[in-house]
Amino acid sequence: MGGVRKILHLSARYQHNWIKPVGFDTGIKVYNCRTQGKVPFIVRNKDSVTWYTCGPTVYDSSHIGHASCYVKLDIIRRILQNHFSLNLITVMNITDIDDKIITKSSASKISINDLAKIYEKEFWEDMHILNVLKPHVIMRVSENIPLIERFIMKLLKEGHAYKDNDGSILFQIGTYGKLQNVNREQLANFTVWKAAKENEPSWMIQCGAGRPGWHTECSAMASAIFGSEIDIHAGGIDLKFPHHENEEAQCCAYFSKQQWVNYWLHTGHLVRNAVKMSKSLQNTTTIRGMLELCSGNVFRMMCLMSHYRKNMEFSEEYVHAAKTHLETYTNFLINCNIIINNPYKPHIEIDVLNDCVRQSVTKFSDALKDDFDTAQCIKIIDNLISVINRMLHNSSQMSHLQEITPLIGACNFVTNMLHMFGFNLSNRHEISESNETELTNILTKFRQNVRAIGLETKNSNLISLCDSVRDDLYKLGVSVKDHKYISLWSKI
Ligand SMILES: [Zn+2]
Protein backbone atom coordinates (compact mmCIF):
# COMPACT_ATOMS: atom_id res chain seq x y z
CA MET A 1 0.00 0.00 0.00
CA GLY A 2 3.05 2.26 0.30
CA GLY A 3 1.53 3.73 3.41
CA VAL A 4 -1.10 5.75 1.59
CA ARG A 5 -4.60 4.40 1.71
CA LYS A 6 -7.07 4.90 -1.05
CA ILE A 7 -9.47 7.76 -0.70
CA LEU A 8 -12.56 6.35 0.89
CA HIS A 9 -15.97 7.01 -0.50
CA LEU A 10 -17.98 9.23 1.71
CA SER A 11 -20.34 7.50 4.01
CA ALA A 12 -24.04 8.09 4.24
CA ARG A 13 -23.37 10.31 7.23
CA TYR A 14 -21.78 12.86 4.91
CA GLN A 15 -23.89 15.96 4.54
CA HIS A 16 -23.45 19.55 3.41
CA ASN A 17 -26.14 21.08 5.54
CA TRP A 18 -25.25 23.81 7.94
CA ILE A 19 -26.86 23.38 11.33
CA LYS A 20 -28.36 26.61 12.66
CA PRO A 21 -27.06 27.13 16.19
CA VAL A 22 -29.30 27.72 19.18
CA GLY A 23 -28.76 30.88 21.21
CA PHE A 24 -28.85 34.66 20.89
CA ASP A 25 -29.79 36.07 17.49
CA THR A 26 -27.58 39.11 16.93
CA GLY A 27 -29.72 40.40 14.06
CA ILE A 28 -26.70 40.13 11.77
CA LYS A 29 -26.79 38.15 8.53
CA VAL A 30 -23.44 36.62 7.73
CA TYR A 31 -22.20 34.80 4.65
CA ASN A 32 -21.95 31.07 5.16
CA CYS A 33 -19.63 29.11 2.89
CA ARG A 34 -21.64 25.94 3.41
CA THR A 35 -25.01 27.33 2.37
CA GLN A 36 -23.32 29.81 0.01
CA GLY A 37 -25.68 32.50 1.20
CA LYS A 38 -26.30 34.78 4.15
CA VAL A 39 -27.65 33.17 7.32
CA PRO A 40 -28.64 34.59 10.74
CA PHE A 41 -25.66 35.06 13.03
CA ILE A 42 -26.65 33.31 16.24
CA VAL A 43 -24.19 33.06 19.10
CA ARG A 44 -24.58 30.57 21.91
CA ASN A 45 -24.00 33.19 24.59
CA LYS A 46 -23.62 36.90 23.84
CA ASP A 47 -21.43 37.31 26.92
CA SER A 48 -18.98 34.68 25.79
CA VAL A 49 -18.64 34.51 22.00
CA THR A 50 -15.77 32.21 21.02
CA TRP A 51 -13.53 33.15 18.10
CA TYR A 52 -10.48 31.24 16.85
CA THR A 53 -8.19 32.72 14.16
CA CYS A 54 -5.50 30.79 12.32
CA GLY A 55 -2.27 32.63 13.05
CA PRO A 56 0.95 32.93 11.06
CA THR A 57 3.76 30.46 10.49
CA VAL A 58 6.68 32.46 11.83
CA TYR A 59 9.49 31.77 9.38
CA ASP A 60 9.77 35.15 7.62
CA SER A 61 8.55 38.77 7.71
CA SER A 62 4.79 39.02 7.33
CA HIS A 63 3.61 40.40 3.99
CA ILE A 64 0.70 42.64 3.11
CA GLY A 65 -1.54 39.65 2.37
CA HIS A 66 -1.32 38.92 6.10
CA ALA A 67 -1.97 42.60 6.84
CA SER A 68 -5.17 42.63 4.80
CA CYS A 69 -6.43 39.40 6.42
CA TYR A 70 -5.75 40.47 10.00
CA VAL A 71 -6.89 44.10 9.57
CA LYS A 72 -10.16 42.94 7.97
CA LEU A 73 -10.74 40.45 10.81
CA ASP A 74 -9.83 43.14 13.34
CA ILE A 75 -12.51 45.39 11.84
CA ILE A 76 -15.13 42.62 12.20
CA ARG A 77 -13.98 41.95 15.76
CA ARG A 78 -14.38 45.64 16.63
CA ILE A 79 -17.81 45.78 14.96
CA LEU A 80 -19.01 42.80 17.01
CA GLN A 81 -17.50 44.14 20.23
CA ASN A 82 -18.19 47.84 19.91
CA HIS A 83 -21.30 48.09 17.75
CA PHE A 84 -23.14 44.89 18.69
CA SER A 85 -21.84 44.72 22.29
CA LEU A 86 -20.83 41.07 22.09
CA ASN A 87 -18.26 39.86 24.56
CA LEU A 88 -15.70 38.08 22.37
CA ILE A 89 -13.13 35.59 23.60
CA THR A 90 -10.39 35.44 20.96
CA VAL A 91 -7.65 32.89 20.46
CA MET A 92 -4.90 32.71 17.84
CA ASN A 93 -2.28 30.05 17.24
CA ILE A 94 1.33 30.64 16.28
CA THR A 95 2.84 27.92 14.13
CA ASP A 96 6.39 27.90 15.46
CA ILE A 97 7.33 24.48 14.13
CA ASP A 98 6.95 23.75 10.43
CA ASP A 99 8.85 22.57 7.32
CA LYS A 100 9.50 26.17 6.23
CA ILE A 101 10.97 27.10 9.61
CA ILE A 102 13.20 24.02 9.58
CA THR A 103 14.46 24.80 6.04
CA LYS A 104 15.16 28.43 6.88
CA SER A 105 16.85 27.50 10.13
CA SER A 106 19.33 25.16 8.47
CA ALA A 107 20.02 27.71 5.71
CA SER A 108 20.51 30.63 8.10
CA LYS A 109 22.22 28.69 10.92
CA ILE A 110 19.81 30.29 13.39
CA SER A 111 18.12 27.82 15.72
CA ILE A 112 14.48 27.00 15.02
CA ASN A 113 13.53 28.41 18.38
CA ASP A 114 15.34 31.72 17.87
CA LEU A 115 14.08 32.07 14.30
CA ALA A 116 10.47 31.57 15.35
CA LYS A 117 10.89 34.05 18.21
CA ILE A 118 12.39 36.73 15.91
CA TYR A 119 9.56 36.53 13.37
CA GLU A 120 6.81 36.19 15.96
CA LYS A 121 8.07 39.36 17.67
CA GLU A 122 8.12 41.15 14.31
CA PHE A 123 4.59 39.92 13.55
CA TRP A 124 3.19 41.41 16.77
CA GLU A 125 5.05 44.68 16.13
CA ASP A 126 3.50 44.83 12.65
CA MET A 127 0.05 44.15 14.10
CA HIS A 128 0.61 46.91 16.66
CA ILE A 129 1.49 49.44 13.94
CA LEU A 130 -1.65 48.40 12.05
CA ASN A 131 -3.65 48.83 15.29
CA VAL A 132 -4.84 45.23 15.21
CA LEU A 133 -6.10 44.12 18.63
CA LYS A 134 -4.15 41.26 20.17
CA PRO A 135 -6.03 38.01 20.76
CA HIS A 136 -6.80 37.25 24.39
CA VAL A 137 -4.95 33.96 24.18
CA ILE A 138 -1.93 33.12 22.01
CA MET A 139 -1.23 29.41 21.61
CA ARG A 140 2.19 28.33 20.32
CA VAL A 141 2.41 24.81 18.95
CA SER A 142 5.73 24.11 20.71
CA GLU A 143 4.15 24.95 24.07
CA ASN A 144 1.04 22.80 23.61
CA ILE A 145 2.26 19.37 22.58
CA PRO A 146 0.52 17.53 25.50
CA LEU A 147 -2.93 18.64 24.41
CA ILE A 148 -2.12 17.83 20.78
CA GLU A 149 -1.06 14.38 21.98
CA ARG A 150 -4.36 13.93 23.83
CA PHE A 151 -6.25 14.88 20.67
CA ILE A 152 -4.30 12.46 18.45
CA MET A 153 -4.55 9.57 20.91
CA LYS A 154 -8.33 9.84 20.99
CA LEU A 155 -8.53 9.91 17.18
CA LEU A 156 -6.34 6.79 17.06
CA LYS A 157 -8.29 5.00 19.77
CA GLU A 158 -11.60 5.62 18.08
CA GLY A 159 -10.37 4.58 14.65
CA HIS A 160 -10.44 7.99 13.01
CA ALA A 161 -6.68 7.91 12.49
CA TYR A 162 -4.15 5.19 11.76
CA LYS A 163 -0.41 4.68 11.91
CA ASP A 164 1.42 4.73 8.59
CA ASN A 165 4.43 2.56 7.72
CA ASP A 166 6.93 5.33 8.54
CA GLY A 167 5.41 5.95 11.96
CA SER A 168 3.37 9.00 10.96
CA ILE A 169 -0.29 9.18 11.97
CA LEU A 170 -2.83 9.90 9.25
CA PHE A 171 -6.43 11.05 9.58
CA GLN A 172 -8.92 8.76 7.95
CA ILE A 173 -10.99 11.17 5.87
CA GLY A 174 -14.48 9.98 5.17
CA THR A 175 -15.08 8.71 8.65
CA TYR A 176 -16.73 12.02 9.27
CA GLY A 177 -16.70 13.92 6.03
CA LYS A 178 -18.44 17.17 6.64
CA LEU A 179 -17.08 19.39 4.00
CA GLN A 180 -17.62 22.67 2.30
CA ASN A 181 -18.73 22.00 -1.23
CA VAL A 182 -15.57 20.37 -2.52
CA ASN A 183 -15.35 17.46 -4.92
CA ARG A 184 -14.92 14.09 -3.34
CA GLU A 185 -11.85 13.56 -5.53
CA GLN A 186 -10.16 16.46 -3.75
CA LEU A 187 -10.25 14.69 -0.40
CA ALA A 188 -7.25 12.81 0.86
CA ASN A 189 -6.10 11.42 4.14
CA PHE A 190 -3.74 13.87 5.78
CA THR A 191 -0.96 13.81 8.34
CA VAL A 192 -1.92 14.32 11.95
CA TRP A 193 1.54 13.54 13.37
CA LYS A 194 4.73 13.53 11.30
CA ALA A 195 7.21 10.81 12.30
CA ALA A 196 10.56 12.16 13.52
CA LYS A 197 13.33 12.60 10.96
CA GLU A 198 17.02 12.99 11.55
CA ASN A 199 18.16 16.55 12.32
CA GLU A 200 14.58 17.71 12.77
CA PRO A 201 13.02 18.72 16.07
CA SER A 202 10.63 16.18 17.51
CA TRP A 203 8.65 15.38 20.62
CA MET A 204 8.10 11.95 22.10
CA ILE A 205 4.43 11.16 22.62
CA GLN A 206 2.63 7.89 23.26
CA CYS A 207 2.37 6.98 19.58
CA GLY A 208 6.01 7.75 18.78
CA ALA A 209 8.47 10.59 18.20
CA GLY A 210 7.54 13.34 15.76
CA ARG A 211 5.80 16.67 15.40
CA PRO A 212 2.22 17.75 14.78
CA GLY A 213 0.67 18.25 11.35
CA TRP A 214 -0.55 21.76 10.64
CA HIS A 215 -4.30 20.98 10.49
CA THR A 216 -4.14 19.02 13.72
CA GLU A 217 -2.41 21.71 15.75
CA CYS A 218 -5.29 24.14 15.12
CA SER A 219 -7.98 21.51 15.76
CA ALA A 220 -6.36 20.33 18.97
CA MET A 221 -5.59 23.77 20.41
CA ALA A 222 -8.92 25.36 19.41
CA SER A 223 -10.95 22.47 20.79
CA ALA A 224 -8.83 22.27 23.96
CA ILE A 225 -9.76 25.84 24.84
CA PHE A 226 -13.24 26.17 23.30
CA GLY A 227 -14.55 22.59 23.38
CA SER A 228 -16.99 20.93 21.04
CA GLU A 229 -18.61 24.05 19.57
CA ILE A 230 -17.03 27.29 18.34
CA ASP A 231 -18.98 30.37 17.30
CA ILE A 232 -16.43 31.82 14.85
CA HIS A 233 -13.36 30.42 13.15
CA ALA A 234 -11.53 32.81 10.86
CA GLY A 235 -8.70 33.06 8.37
CA GLY A 236 -7.82 33.96 4.80
CA ILE A 237 -9.80 32.35 1.97
CA ASP A 238 -6.72 30.21 1.08
CA LEU A 239 -7.23 28.34 4.35
CA LYS A 240 -10.78 27.26 3.51
CA PHE A 241 -9.50 24.20 1.72
CA PRO A 242 -7.87 22.00 2.76
CA HIS A 243 -6.87 23.51 6.13
CA HIS A 244 -10.28 24.43 7.53
CA GLU A 245 -11.92 21.49 5.84
CA ASN A 246 -9.55 19.15 7.62
CA GLU A 247 -9.84 20.98 10.94
CA GLU A 248 -13.62 20.58 10.84
CA ALA A 249 -13.44 16.92 9.83
CA GLN A 250 -11.05 16.05 12.67
CA CYS A 251 -13.02 17.89 15.33
CA CYS A 252 -16.35 16.44 14.21
CA ALA A 253 -14.70 13.02 14.51
CA TYR A 254 -13.11 13.91 17.84
CA PHE A 255 -16.35 15.12 19.40
CA SER A 256 -18.65 12.73 17.48
CA LYS A 257 -20.56 15.74 16.17
CA GLN A 258 -21.99 16.90 12.88
CA GLN A 259 -20.78 20.48 13.28
CA TRP A 260 -17.86 21.94 15.21
CA VAL A 261 -17.62 25.51 13.90
CA ASN A 262 -20.87 27.43 13.53
CA TYR A 263 -19.48 30.29 11.39
CA TRP A 264 -16.41 30.37 9.18
CA LEU A 265 -15.16 33.85 8.27
CA HIS A 266 -12.88 34.00 5.24
CA THR A 267 -11.22 37.17 4.00
CA GLY A 268 -10.60 37.74 0.29
CA HIS A 269 -7.19 37.89 -1.38
CA LEU A 270 -5.06 40.95 -1.81
CA VAL A 271 -4.44 41.29 -5.54
CA ARG A 272 -2.26 43.41 -7.80
CA ASN A 273 -3.38 43.74 -11.41
CA ALA A 274 -5.98 41.07 -10.62
CA VAL A 275 -3.26 38.56 -9.59
CA LYS A 276 -3.13 37.33 -6.00
CA MET A 277 -0.20 38.83 -4.08
CA SER A 278 1.80 36.08 -2.44
CA LYS A 279 5.30 35.17 -1.44
CA SER A 280 5.36 32.25 -3.86
CA LEU A 281 4.49 34.51 -6.80
CA GLN A 282 7.07 37.06 -5.63
CA ASN A 283 4.72 39.96 -6.29
CA THR A 284 4.22 40.96 -2.70
CA THR A 285 5.90 43.20 -0.19
CA THR A 286 6.44 43.05 3.55
CA ILE A 287 4.17 44.95 5.92
CA ARG A 288 7.11 47.26 6.73
CA GLY A 289 7.61 47.93 3.01
CA MET A 290 3.92 48.69 2.58
CA LEU A 291 3.96 51.13 5.51
CA GLU A 292 6.45 53.26 3.57
CA LEU A 293 3.77 53.73 0.91
CA CYS A 294 0.78 54.28 3.14
CA SER A 295 0.06 54.63 6.85
CA GLY A 296 -1.72 52.01 8.95
CA ASN A 297 -4.80 54.26 8.94
CA VAL A 298 -4.83 54.51 5.14
CA PHE A 299 -4.47 50.73 4.84
CA ARG A 300 -7.37 50.27 7.27
CA MET A 301 -9.47 52.63 5.13
CA MET A 302 -8.60 50.50 2.06
CA CYS A 303 -9.84 47.42 3.91
CA LEU A 304 -13.06 49.19 4.91
CA MET A 305 -13.73 50.38 1.37
CA SER A 306 -13.51 46.81 0.10
CA HIS A 307 -15.90 44.18 1.45
CA TYR A 308 -14.02 41.70 3.67
CA ARG A 309 -14.89 38.71 1.49
CA LYS A 310 -13.91 40.38 -1.77
CA ASN A 311 -10.46 40.53 -3.27
CA MET A 312 -8.79 43.87 -2.58
CA GLU A 313 -6.71 45.52 -5.30
CA PHE A 314 -3.45 46.98 -4.03
CA SER A 315 -2.70 49.80 -6.46
CA GLU A 316 -1.51 53.40 -6.32
CA GLU A 317 -5.00 54.59 -7.26
CA TYR A 318 -6.61 52.63 -4.46
CA VAL A 319 -4.08 53.87 -1.89
CA HIS A 320 -4.73 57.41 -3.15
CA ALA A 321 -8.51 56.95 -2.92
CA ALA A 322 -8.23 55.72 0.69
CA LYS A 323 -5.91 58.60 1.59
CA THR A 324 -8.36 61.12 0.10
CA HIS A 325 -11.23 59.56 2.04
CA LEU A 326 -9.38 59.77 5.31
CA GLU A 327 -8.43 63.40 4.60
CA THR A 328 -12.05 64.25 3.79
CA TYR A 329 -13.14 62.80 7.15
CA THR A 330 -10.36 64.53 9.07
CA ASN A 331 -10.97 67.89 7.34
CA PHE A 332 -14.70 67.58 8.00
CA LEU A 333 -14.07 67.09 11.72
CA ILE A 334 -11.58 69.98 11.83
CA ASN A 335 -13.99 72.30 9.97
CA CYS A 336 -16.88 71.36 12.24
CA ASN A 337 -14.71 71.93 15.27
CA ILE A 338 -13.81 75.41 14.04
CA ILE A 339 -17.50 76.23 13.45
CA ILE A 340 -18.64 74.76 16.76
CA ASN A 341 -16.02 76.71 18.71
CA ASN A 342 -16.43 79.99 16.83
CA PRO A 343 -18.97 82.65 17.85
CA TYR A 344 -19.95 83.20 14.17
CA LYS A 345 -21.83 80.20 12.91
CA PRO A 346 -23.32 79.54 9.48
CA HIS A 347 -27.03 78.86 9.26
CA ILE A 348 -27.97 75.18 9.43
CA GLU A 349 -31.34 73.71 8.57
CA ILE A 350 -31.88 71.81 11.79
CA ASP A 351 -34.67 69.52 10.58
CA VAL A 352 -32.90 68.56 7.37
CA LEU A 353 -29.65 67.80 9.16
CA ASN A 354 -31.30 65.98 12.05
CA ASP A 355 -33.16 63.82 9.55
CA CYS A 356 -30.00 63.14 7.61
CA VAL A 357 -28.05 62.11 10.72
CA ARG A 358 -30.90 59.87 11.91
CA GLN A 359 -31.16 58.14 8.53
CA SER A 360 -27.39 57.72 8.30
CA VAL A 361 -27.22 56.07 11.72
CA THR A 362 -29.97 53.60 10.79
CA LYS A 363 -28.53 52.82 7.36
CA PHE A 364 -25.07 52.43 8.88
CA SER A 365 -26.32 49.86 11.37
CA ASP A 366 -28.28 48.03 8.63
CA ALA A 367 -25.14 47.85 6.48
CA LEU A 368 -23.16 46.32 9.36
CA LYS A 369 -25.94 43.78 9.90
CA ASP A 370 -25.70 42.85 6.22
CA ASP A 371 -22.56 40.69 6.41
CA PHE A 372 -20.45 43.55 7.79
CA ASP A 373 -20.81 45.67 4.64
CA THR A 374 -18.23 48.30 5.57
CA ALA A 375 -17.96 49.51 1.96
CA GLN A 376 -21.60 50.57 2.23
CA CYS A 377 -20.92 52.21 5.63
CA ILE A 378 -18.22 54.36 4.04
CA LYS A 379 -20.67 55.46 1.32
CA ILE A 380 -23.21 56.43 3.99
CA ILE A 381 -20.64 58.57 5.85
CA ASP A 382 -19.51 60.13 2.54
CA ASN A 383 -23.08 61.11 1.79
CA LEU A 384 -23.65 62.64 5.23
CA ILE A 385 -20.43 64.67 4.99
CA SER A 386 -21.24 65.95 1.51
CA VAL A 387 -24.75 67.01 2.59
CA ILE A 388 -23.30 68.95 5.54
CA ASN A 389 -20.47 70.47 3.51
CA ARG A 390 -22.96 71.69 0.91
CA MET A 391 -25.14 73.15 3.66
CA LEU A 392 -22.21 74.98 5.25
CA HIS A 393 -20.85 76.16 1.93
CA ASN A 394 -24.15 77.60 0.72
CA SER A 395 -24.98 79.27 4.01
CA SER A 396 -24.77 83.06 3.92
CA GLN A 397 -26.37 83.94 7.24
CA MET A 398 -25.22 83.51 10.81
CA SER A 399 -27.25 81.41 13.20
CA HIS A 400 -28.11 80.93 16.83
CA LEU A 401 -26.15 78.53 19.00
CA GLN A 402 -28.80 75.81 19.20
CA GLU A 403 -28.71 75.35 15.42
CA ILE A 404 -25.30 73.85 15.89
CA THR A 405 -26.47 70.82 17.90
CA PRO A 406 -27.23 68.50 14.93
CA LEU A 407 -23.79 69.40 13.55
CA ILE A 408 -22.23 68.27 16.84
CA GLY A 409 -24.36 65.12 16.58
CA ALA A 410 -23.02 64.46 13.07
CA CYS A 411 -19.45 65.05 14.25
CA ASN A 412 -19.89 62.64 17.13
CA PHE A 413 -21.26 60.02 14.74
CA VAL A 414 -18.25 60.33 12.39
CA THR A 415 -15.75 60.37 15.29
CA ASN A 416 -17.37 57.34 16.95
CA MET A 417 -17.37 55.51 13.64
CA LEU A 418 -13.63 56.17 13.18
CA HIS A 419 -12.96 54.90 16.71
CA MET A 420 -15.24 51.90 16.29
CA PHE A 421 -13.48 50.81 13.06
CA GLY A 422 -10.12 51.01 14.83
CA PHE A 423 -8.45 54.06 13.32
CA ASN A 424 -5.53 55.28 15.35
CA LEU A 425 -6.48 58.89 16.01
CA SER A 426 -3.89 59.52 18.72
CA ASN A 427 -1.26 60.56 16.11
CA ARG A 428 -3.25 63.68 15.40
CA HIS A 429 -2.83 64.84 19.00
CA GLU A 430 0.86 64.01 18.99
CA ILE A 431 1.30 66.04 15.82
CA SER A 432 -0.64 68.97 17.21
CA GLU A 433 1.55 69.05 20.33
CA SER A 434 4.78 69.03 18.37
CA ASN A 435 3.24 71.63 16.05
CA GLU A 436 2.80 74.04 18.94
CA THR A 437 6.48 74.97 18.85
CA GLU A 438 6.44 75.23 15.08
CA LEU A 439 3.36 77.49 15.19
CA THR A 440 5.05 79.79 17.71
CA ASN A 441 8.14 79.92 15.49
CA ILE A 442 6.05 80.88 12.46
CA LEU A 443 4.12 83.54 14.34
CA THR A 444 7.26 85.02 15.95
CA LYS A 445 9.06 85.19 12.62
CA PHE A 446 6.06 86.80 10.92
CA ARG A 447 5.83 89.34 13.73
CA GLN A 448 9.58 90.00 13.53
CA ASN A 449 9.31 90.75 9.78
CA VAL A 450 6.28 93.00 10.19
CA ARG A 451 8.01 94.82 13.05
CA ALA A 452 11.14 95.33 10.92
CA ILE A 453 9.00 96.96 8.21
CA GLY A 454 7.33 99.10 10.91
CA LEU A 455 10.71 100.25 12.22
CA GLU A 456 12.14 100.99 8.77
CA THR A 457 9.07 102.90 7.59
CA LYS A 458 8.49 104.44 11.03
CA ASN A 459 4.90 103.08 10.96
CA SER A 460 3.71 103.30 14.58
CA ASN A 461 0.48 101.42 13.80
CA LEU A 462 2.42 98.33 12.72
CA ILE A 463 4.69 98.60 15.80
CA SER A 464 1.73 98.80 18.15
CA LEU A 465 0.00 95.80 16.43
CA CYS A 466 3.22 93.85 16.99
CA ASP A 467 3.26 94.93 20.64
CA SER A 468 -0.30 93.69 21.15
CA VAL A 469 0.60 90.29 19.60
CA ARG A 470 3.56 90.13 22.05
CA ASP A 471 1.20 90.92 24.98
CA ASP A 472 -1.35 88.28 23.83
CA LEU A 473 1.38 85.64 23.55
CA TYR A 474 2.58 86.53 27.05
CA LYS A 475 -0.93 85.74 28.37
CA LEU A 476 -0.56 82.28 26.78
CA GLY A 477 2.75 81.70 28.56
CA VAL A 478 5.04 82.69 25.68
CA SER A 479 7.52 85.50 26.29
CA VAL A 480 8.80 87.39 23.20
CA LYS A 481 11.92 89.55 23.48
CA ASP A 482 12.77 92.02 20.70
CA HIS A 483 16.42 92.79 19.91
CA LYS A 484 16.28 95.52 17.28
CA TYR A 485 15.31 93.51 14.16
CA ILE A 486 15.45 90.07 15.78
CA SER A 487 12.73 88.60 18.01
CA LEU A 488 13.23 85.52 20.19
CA TRP A 489 10.67 83.62 22.25
CA SER A 490 10.66 81.27 25.16
CA LYS A 491 8.05 79.61 27.38
CA ILE A 492 7.53 81.39 30.68
ZN1 LIG B 1 -5.78 26.82 11.49
Automatic annotation (TrEMBL):
The keyword Cytoplasm does not apply. It catalyses: S-disulfanyl-L-cysteine + tRNA(Cys) + ATP = (S)-disulfanyl-L-cysteinyl-tRNA(Cys) + AMP + diphosphate; S-sulfanyl-L-cysteine + L-cysteine = S-disulfanyl-L-cysteine + L-alanine; S-sulfanyl-L-cysteine + tRNA(Cys) + ATP = (S)-sulfanyl-L-cysteinyl-tRNA(Cys) + AMP + diphosphate; 2 L-cysteine = S-sulfanyl-L-cysteine + L-alanine. Its cofactor is Zn(2+). GO terms for biological process: cysteinyl-tRNA aminoacylation. Coiled coil: none annotated. Keywords: Aminoacyl-tRNA synthetase, ATP-binding, Ligase, Metal-binding, Nucleotide-binding, Protein biosynthesis, Zinc. GO terms for cellular component: cytoplasm. Transmembrane segments: none annotated. It comes from the Eukaryota. In addition to its role as an aminoacyl-tRNA synthetase, has also cysteine persulfide synthase activity. Produces reactive persulfide species such as cysteine persulfide (CysSSH) from substrate cysteine and mediate direct incorporation of CysSSH into proteins during translations, resulting in protein persulfides and polysulfides. CysSSHs behave as potent antioxidants and cellular protectants. Mitochondrial cysteine-specific aminoacyl-tRNA synthetase that catalyzes the ATP-dependent ligation of cysteine to tRNA(Cys). NCBIfam families: cysS. Belongs to the class-I aminoacyl-tRNA synthetase family. This is cysteine--tRNA ligase. It comes from Pyrocoelia pectoralis.
